[in-house]
Write a structure and sequence with these properties.
heterodimer; A: alpha/beta; 9-stranded mixed beta sheet; two-stranded antiparallel ribbon; 13 strands; B: alpha/beta; Rossmann fold; 7-stranded parallel beta sheet; 5-stranded parallel beta sheet; globular
Chain lengths: 249, 313
Amino acid sequence: MDKIIVGLKRVVDYNVRVQVKSDGSGVETDGVKMSINPFDEIALEEALRIKERGEATEVIAVSIGTTEAQQQLRTGLAMGADRAILVRVDGNIDSLSLARVFKKLADQENAELVLLGKQAIDGDNSQVAQMLSAIWGRPQATFASGIEIDGDKARVVREVDAGLETIEIDLPAVISVDLRLNEARYVKLPDIMKAKKKPLDEVALADLGIEAGPPIKELSYAPPEDRQRGIMVEDVAGLVAALKDKGLV
Amino acid sequence: MAKVLIVAEHDGSALNSSTAKCVSCAAAIEGAEIDVVVLAASAGDLAAEAAEIAGVSRVITIERPENEHALAALLAPQVAAVASDYTHVFGPSTTFGKDLMPHVAALLGVNQVSDIMSVEGSHTYKRPVYAGNAIVTVEAPAGSTVVATARVASWQSAAGGNSAAIEAGDASIEIPSHTRYVGLESAASDRPDLQTAARVVAGGRAFGSEEKFDLLYKLADALGAGVGASRAAVDAGFCANDMQVGQTGKIIAPDLYIAIGISGAIQHVTGIKDAGTIVAINKDEESPIFEIADIGLVADLFDVLPELTTALS
């Protein structure tokens, strides 16, 4: 296999407890720690392992976002990506446009595989890989927890509600990865230094000939309805009594 | 007027309850006319089942051998071909619907609304983001087809007793051959399905081993409950992947949820927020799970589980 494209989204860090802004316009991101979407990190790790097994020649990290996403691409380069592309957009962009960007880049780079996270932990949409499959006319394997490359085919184990499903797909293809595919490597300091010398190209969305939208419009944000803290019981007898009281047992 | 097409989910022999939940979501759109499409190798019994769901006007069957297994890239063009007659196309937010519906949306050239938890208008919906830490009201563009998934934990199954018309749809749409089904490895269990069980017991890292998870299965059997787990327990190898409850696992809404040895990370809590009653057993009284539990018990699970199982048997 020749090239693998990996998508890296800049998102609010996994450990941050996000707060809805008081005016309902979104969530607070000022001064909040930002990171690579954890699923995307797993996608990159898998791409690197495929390359290390000699089954791919180049790993290209792609982010679509503001200039700040350079940070996440630099981290991706430090992990081991060969080069990076930032597709610059201001603010949010809809999933279908994201899929069009990946299609464009997959064509330009002649990529054999596009690896994406199964969802971003901010929007929780889980859409881009499936949309890319549709507009690219190539196979999709979503929620992957195992990937074996075999020449011009891949065998993918998928985490589905009923268990673990295995499918075989022809390459090129897009795969979205799930949590248990691998554990991403830690970045070491010398790698960060080396990453500074790796190429990071920037291109504007319009330069790819892609016009965003029409998006699903976000009207307002609100905090979720909180569940209230209930009662504490002392022992099993108290618990059983409380359950009986509610008619649950 | 809204005309909604619902893509039925099934395993080849029976409908998944997510289908009747999607019907409820669609019925929340005022004046909606609701049809169900069943894509299967053999659709007869499945269509008959779908025709019984209250609120359904018509069931369309698309029967062909390639539809034996739900492969999104094969099903999507067939759904998209039927979709032209509809203002809305809905599927469930299960792995079946998550895999399929965005592909359908892109074939139709539109974006998708994921995880509808409430319907505010024909094109306006509420959905959770940031692991349920925020709820956003969204509006799909007027004038193009709305493709969406219904967050199954937010909707009750529509009632039965209906007898909608059944008709055969076009089974000659061209579909790709680049994707092939190989097999399914399912942890066979006689216990109720996690996503539809009225009672669920779930275990966390505190169990310490796969063997100790037996204590949880015993409690489940005493209660007739489904079994879930935290991500930590799944990652540690105590149980199968498909038991994970939370942001990246299953989102469930049982009447009773008993979390044992689960600390209650926000990513887990988002998967159980719609449960009727949440019970938490944890030896750390500071565990965040107690902040959302209706009934809490601070105790070592190994001390209390056998006693609880006996008491509920």
